[in-house]
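Before relying on records like the one below, remember that each one covers exactly one chain. Contacts with other chains, cofactors or solvent are not represented anywhere in the record.
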Amino acid sequence: MNLTDLRPNQRYLFHYKDSCQHDEPMFRANFVKLFVHSNYKILIVNGYHSKKYQSENIRTVWSIDAKLISKVENLSDIVGEKCVLPDDILLEIDNYT
């Protein structure tokens, strides 16, 4: 999934390009905005969920260099064709916190 295709307030699973450089290879968060400048792109998320940092405030807004992100998946992408639920139901489930 391309970063420009992300929908605000939708929850996604973000993968880091080089997981050796980070504590975790991936994280879940709500997409807020993609800030695009001629020299860089900044991914802004909230509702960050980390297995390692479970006590982090989920209301915090996080800014991440978009170059660090290799892959983005929504719940439909993760479950694939195995799921019998329609995409709109999966979207509701994924947004439930």
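The chain has a mean pLDDT of 77.
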